[in-house]
Write a structure and sequence with these properties.
Blueprint (H helix, E strand, L loop, with lengths): L10 H12 L2 H13 L3 H29 L3 H7 L6 H33 L9 H6 L1 H20 L2 H28 L4 H9 L8 H14 L6 H6 L8 H30 L13 H12 L2 H37 L4 H20 L6 H4 L13 H39 L9 H31 L5
Helix pairs in contact: 1-8, 1-12, 1-14, 2-10, 2-12, 3-4, 3-10, 3-12, 3-17, 3-18, 4-5, 5-7, 5-14, 5-15, 5-17, 7-8, 7-14, 7-15, 8-12, 8-14, 9-12, 12-13, 13-14, 14-15, 15-17, 17-18
The structure holds tryptophan.
């Protein structure tokens, strides 16, 4: 007997879950160091523009495909009548598995830092290198994180993912607001904010644009069917356009708040000289603990622990969505029991993440995994997986999804699906914009990004 597909119980539930997927390490860990690397406020402006102009239409498309077909990303293309396009769903699932394999490692670091700061160990900032190298410890945090993710996903859509997101997302926002208010009271806070918000347009170059776009796309969880999957659990009564707008707004809003929270700390620590602090993967892990320490042993401990707990929550709602994609596939297509699928897939992805886990110094082989053409230093396994799974496969997926929708499935079918739940959609400016974006703007821009990434990452072409 075919049982009825589960559903998010309300529009808010769906938005919390999808915003939870979007808001993650990308917003709080990656965004600030991308800002620091890439021209401060100029980067922020580009990022916001891309979120709304380019990513939002892709998001609407993914959700609509999911809701129309009520299927996982592979089954969705079959259900629409284009079985040849199954490969796109498969690519998406592979990308998601690759992303989760390394994402879980960083999420484990965040959780480990929460524990360290709760214990008052501010030294951890200077020991970042040793911390990520201590395989027993980060391995354990990684296991805890994957187990938590699997536990939530095993409880299903409304009872697991939705419930967790409805609890974690509002908590995250409250914690963030507290931290932002606190950080704005620090000495030199203003210099941090100025660096973050006053654009220097001379800083905009092609590289800033390129990074901002990649960041927006990753941050909104696009290009691999995560939102096709979540969309498949959305009620026909919901308005996809307003949901997507709210998800985009929450994601961009949280990234923005993360900057407001972090740059004052950085300015405080550097006595106002934000530029002197190096951006990079260790940015918040290396810099922030000393900032917390200098605000005082007790308050620093509370604020520090709160920050890394917040980061862990943000990461958890994202790992959940990454795991849900292959799980929905296994449940729909391979008819596997959800609980069984969850634990097997989680174990598999954890194992796949072990080389990433040990690629930060512990294993010489994985630490110096590849040297790209023309590069002067080796790339570790973890970054390598990121270059493939997120930097390359996501824009490629986004490119193909928009091509598919505009030219194969056809725009009027997309519009018809959107109209259910948004009867006034036809003839609106927003309809015209979405049609234009998915027919021309998105395929062209995402196609270019994909090619440039290939050339730049793997073939040593320096186009900047
Ligand atoms: N958006 C998340 C972040 O910013 C990461 C993420 C979760 C993701 N699910 C995804 C990225 C699906 C791409 C696709 O941290």
């Amino acid at each position: 007997m075919a049982s009825e597909r589960s559903k998010f119980s309300s529009k808010f539930g769906f938005i919390a879950a999808a915003a939870g997927s979007a808001v993650g390490l990308g917003n709080i860990w990656k965004f600030p160091f991308e800002v620091a690397n890439g021209g401060g406020a100029a980067f922020v402006i580009m990022y916001l523009l891309f979120c709304f102009l380019l990513c939002f239409p892709v998001m609407v498309t993914e959700i609509a495909i999911g809701r129309k077909t009520q299927k996982n990303p592979v089954g969705a293309f079959v259900a629409l009548g284009f079985p040849k396009w199954k490969f796109l769903g498969i690519l998406g699932i592979i990308a998601g598995i690759l992303i989760l394999s390394f994402y879980n490692v960083v999420a484990g670091w965040a959780f480990g830092y929460f524990i360290q700061l709760a214990l008052g160990n501010f030294e951890i900032g200077n020991q970042f290198g040793e911390f990520v190298n201590n395989i027993g410890r980060v391995g354990l945090y990684g296991i805890i994180f994957m187990l938590s993710t699997a536990y939530v996903v095993s409880r299903g859509i409304s009872g697991g993912i939705e419930k967790a997101s409805k609890l974690l997302m509002p908590t995250l926002v409250v914690m963030m607001v507290i931290l932002v208010i606190y950080s704005l009271t620090l000495p030199h806070a203003f210099e941090g904010i100025a660096y973050y918000l006053i654009p220097q347009f001379s800083e905009i170059n092609f590289k800033v644009v390129y990074n901002a776009l990649g960041q927006a796309f990753f941050s909104l969880s696009l290009g691999m069917g995560a939102l096709i999957t979540y969309g498949s659990y959305v009620s026909k009564k919901d308005n996809i356009v307003s949901s997507a707008a709210l998800i985009t707004l929450s994601d961009a809003g949280i990234a923005f708040l993360a900057g407001l929270m972090i740059f004052p700390f950085v300015a405080y620590l550097s006595n106002g000289d934000v530029e002197s602090i190096q951006g990079g993967a260790g940015f918040i892990f290396e810099v922030l603990p000393s900032a917390f320490e200098s605000i005082g042993p007790i308050i620093g401990r509370i604020i520090g622990a709160l920050f890394f707990l917040l980061l862990s929550f943000a990461a958890l709602t994202s790992t959940i969505s990454l795991l849900e994609v292959p799980v929905t596939y296994a449940v729909d297509e391979l008819k596997v029991n959800r609980k069984y699928a969850v634990w097997i897939i989680a174990l598999f992805i954890f194992m796949l993440g072990v080389p990433s886990l040990i690629s930060n110094g512990d294993s010489h082989f994985f630490t110096n995994f590849v040297t790209y053409l023309g590069a002067d230093k080796a790339t570790n396994f973890m970054d390598f997986v990121g270059h493939i799974g997120s930097d390359t496969m996501l824009p490629f997926g986004g490119f193909l999804i928009t091509i598919f929708t505009a030219y194969i499935w056809k725009k009027h079918n997309l519009n018809k699906e959107i109209e259910i739940g948004y009867p006034g959609f036809k003839g609106t400016l927003i309809e015209k914009y979405i049609d234009f974006a998915i027919s021309y703007l998105c395929p062209v821009v995402l196609g270019i990004i994909f090619i440039l990434t290939l050339l730049n990452r793997f073939f040593g072409v320096d186009m900047f």
